[in-house]
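Friendly challenge for the regulars: who can give me the structure tokens for this chain first? No prize, just bragging rights.
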Amino acid sequence: MTFLRCVRLHDSDVNPKLLLFAGVLWFSLFLNVPCVPAQQSTPGGRMRLTKIVFTGLQRHSQKEAIAASGLQIGQLVDIPTLDAAAQRLFDSGLFKKLSYRYRTNGDQAVVTFVTEEEKGAAAPVVFDNFVWFSDEELLSAIRQQVPSFAGMANDSATSGISKALQQLLQDRKIAGRVEYAPSSDLSGGNVEHVFTVDGVKVPICSVHFSGATAVKESVLIMNSNSLIAGDYKQTFVFSFAKVNLIPIYRERGHLRASFRPPLAKLVAETTSNCKGGVNITLPVEEGPIYSWGKAEWAGNATLTNPELEAALGMKTGELANVLKIDKGLASTEQAYGRKGHLFPRLKGTPVFEDGSLSVTYRIEIKEGPQYRMGTLTINGLSESTTNRLLVRWKLKSREVYDASYLKEFLKTEMVLDVNEMGSPPRKISPEVKLDREKFIVDVIISVK
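First reply, four minutes later:
Bragging rights claimed.
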């Protein structure tokens, strides 16, 4: 980001009409020309700052903006001082556009900053492995560059945060460099600004869990052994817990179990053989155990509710084991495959009844198109064997395609002619070709 420096105006020697013209000209330039550094030379000399004005503020106060500039009423300033103040304002991340002008009366000066505030949504800031500093130390350091920082930031503030963190490392003589990377989930949500110290190893010495009662801590530790001696990153450890440890709870009916971000504590090097490492604690909120209530189906036409219930296989009152629920949803998709719906989409949303500690799954179904059988081609066999197999193939042309039948046919019917093909055949390669416009399935079986 850059700023536009404006011409100095002297109250004592500028014709009022000329002053008005200069102001209109400057304002039109600000609106229509991108902010670029001015190359204009300015008379030397220092001025005493008597007033600081900000225009365009909506989300931030004059006090916050003045603090971000680093300027103070009464100080002596020159052009490099004002340029540096404008640069600090850009680095603060508060503003999308900024220019300044100043006017003098003798040796006194008034500076006006014309701003357009950054309107992007703020996202949480994550300090991935800054294990040498407390939260208060990090917050204080960043506020030197971004005075309004309180744990959230927009994109334009990230450069200022990086500068502040790098300076903090230098002050503590930690030989690392600050790396920044935005982070989000697969859908583009849950955006975070992640700052990491690169170039310094921080091994994990031990893992502990606070709040674990329903699942023994020893079980969680055993399932976290792969973390030990690895390089500590808060984001990685947090993701590891969600992927590898949450299923342990969900299998036991703790459907709302969750982990909070890990806490890392430097080990004392005089008493540990894990040099420069950390002990980490993962706080867990286990939540209650839920039983299965019922499923509510929506969007189904080909399969009836009883057929869907049979495929799902869950009974009212039994433990709401998410692994079993997921397996049942997969079985439901397979039931649709047997009816020609090769690409069904099922979305289950749990609705919790905390009074009865039961859960109802609202399952929205998009069945997708129904495919029908096209042709069967068998290559690599004698004509007589091929004809026998074609006769045994039960799916007729234009019948609803059964996605499970090909596997069954290969296991049962093909084995009857194993001697003809050789014992065993070197390779049987099935191939399914889809016509996505006519919704036809052609099957090709090659024997080599």
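Confidence is low (pLDDT under 50) at residues 1-43. The first strand starts at residue 4 and ends at 5. Your move, everyone else.
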